UniProtKB/TrEMBL annotation:
Superkingdom of the organism of origin: Bacteria
Protein's name in the database: GTPase Der
Designated gene of the protein: der
Pfam families tied to this protein: KH_dom-like, MMR_HSR1
Family stated for the protein in its record: Belongs to the TRAFAC class TrmE-Era-EngA-EngB-Septin-like GTPase superfamily. EngA (Der) GTPase family.
The species this protein was found in: Liquorilactobacillus mali KCTC 3596 = DSM 20444
Family annotation (PANTHER family): GTPASE DER
């Protein structure tokens, strides 16, 4: 389930972010129509010859006012902690510097595969100079010119060959979820309260550094869950843990590894801009989503309070109209007992498959009641609909001309699907294709 992670490390100015952009490239610029989401240039999803992976530019994580050498060593440590494969970027123009050697010394301590990419090899004459870099001790250096796109394919091949073979298949029956939200909304209190109310499974199998902080437990209904750690929950005492970029990175990694994401809001403070940003990530990643309004105990309530809060959320998070909202308190434990069953339900919806025959009955029925739109006398014709994927449920609608499928009609069809089948808590993707 979880895709491997590649981290790019190296001292400033060797070309890390240029390499990052080359690899992540066009995928980064696909901007979804989600308000409040600013692109985070340090983390991206990528793919090479069908192999998906996630990419981190550690150079983008600035660690406060730390001196330069501390910054680059911290970044190298993040790479060691977070990545399956490390790309160590150096520059042929300056040769090996003290800072390169410093990074190398940190990377020696890791048993992760390290690929040495010598960047800025813009012309063949410079190729001879890359052999000096053997002395860094990471085997054969790879010549790259990220601005010219030279050697990037070879680099990607080497990255993909270095992924661990036996990526532990995360396809056990446990339901993975994470809690995300800005600092102080109560994520760690909620995790502790949830774990306190359920039976934590004590495992004596040593996980990897990254997975060891996931906690499996069994709910009172007997279902197995794993709560995934995000920044701010269980601290490991690293300097970089309090930096904003690192928290974002951890949240994005946690979202990627989750089946269901709990977006935590703070009832006491109301909705803030940062909440939308955080929720936007989860929505974009296509995960199941539940909105938790925590600290519900702090409000003086009347019979309108909950409805008004809900209306406000619906207004501010329009793209999350599918997500259920639950009002909880980590302190009084209010409604926390309902959470496991709700997470389980959303997880089922997230992977629900609809047989084509039933699906087409629903679509054809909908079209009969609300005829397809026309444009310049040409009418949209829908031939057939089929579900092509789960997590999130994705449907392909075969039509005469995709241009004729207006957003409002697509929304109408999606709503018909939602009315007929339970897709609460999960995004649903509709893709129109021209029937040949
Ligand atoms: P970072 O600090 O390691 O992320 O480095 P950047 O990606 O910001 O690049 C630093 C500078 O090197 C920029 O001016 C880039 O345009 C330049 N640069 C990056 N890659 C190459 C390359 O392959 N060839 C040349 N000639 N310049 C490059
Ligand atoms: P995190 O940064 O999101 O992990 O937030 P914490 O779990 O550290 O909580 C931040 C503060 O809010 C702490 O002082 C908690 O005691 C408090 N807090 C958390 N949940 C609740 C709640 O449901 N009700 C009240 N009254 N306080 C809470």
């Amino acid at each position: 389930m979880a895709n491997p992670v590649v981290a790019i490390v190296g001292r400033p100015n060797v070309g890390k972010s240029t390499v990052f952009n080359r690899i992540a490239g066009e995928r980064i610029s696909i901007v979804e129509d989600v308000p409040g989401v600013t692109r985070d240039r340090i983390y991206a999803h990528s793919e090479w010859l069908g192999q998906k992976f996630n990419l981190i530019d550690t150079g983008g994580i600035d660690i406060g006012d730390e001196p330069f050498l501390t910054q680059i060593t911290e970044q190298a440590e993040i790479a060691i902690d977070e990545a399956d494969v490390i790309v160590f970027v150096v520059s042929v123009r300056e040769g090996i510097t003290d800072a390169d050697e410093k990074v190398a010394r940190i990377l020696y301590k890791s048993d992760k595969p390290v690929i040495l990419a010598v960047n800025k090899v813009d012309n063949p004459e410079l190729r001879g100079d890359i052999f000096d870099f053997y002395s860094l001790g990471f085997g054969e250096p790879l010549a790259v010119s990220s601005t010219h796109g030279i050697g990037v394919g070879d680099l990607l091949d080497k990255i993909c060959h270095s992924f661990p073979e036996n990526q532990v298949e995360e396809e056990d029956k446990t339901i993975r979820f994470s809690l995300i939200g800005r600092p102080n909304v109560g994520k760690s209190s909620l995790v502790n309260a949830i774990l306190g109310e359920n039976r934590v499974i004590v495992s004596n199998i040593e996980g990897t550094t990254r997975d060891a902080i996931d906690t499996p437990f069994i709910s009172s209904q007997g279902d197995e869950f794993t709560v995934i750690d995000t920044a701010g929950i269980r601290k490991r005492g690293k300097v970089y843990e309090n930096t904003e970029k690192y928290s974002v990175l951890r949240a994005m990694r946690a979202i990627d590894r989750s089946d269901v994401v709990l977006v935590v809001l703070n009832a006491e403070e109301g909705i803030r801009e940062q909440d939308k940003k955080v929720a936007g990530y989860a929505h974009e990643a296509g995960r199941g989503i539940i909105i938790l309004v925590n600290k519900w105990d702090t409000l003086k309530k009347n019979n309108r309070t909950m409805i008004e809060f809900e209306e406000k959320i619906r207004q501010e998070f329009q793209y999350l109209s599918y997500a259920p909202i639950i009002f909880v308190s980590a302190v009084t434990k209010q409604r926390l007992d309902k959470l496991p069953a709700l997470i389980k339900q959303i997880n089922e919806n997230h992977q629900r498959r609809i047989p084509s025959a039933v699906l087409n009955d629903v679509i054809m029925d909908a079209i009969a009641r609300n005829p397809t739109p026309t444009d310049h006398g040409k009418r949209l014709r829908v031939f057939y609909t089929t579900q092509v994927a789960v997590k999130p449920p994705t449907f392909v609608v075969f039509v005469n001309d995709p241009e004729l499928m207006h957003f409002s009609y697509q929304r109408f069809l999606e709503n018909q699907i939602r009315d007929s089948f339970d897709f609460t808590g999960t995004p649903v993707h509709l893709i129109e294709r021209k029937r040949k």
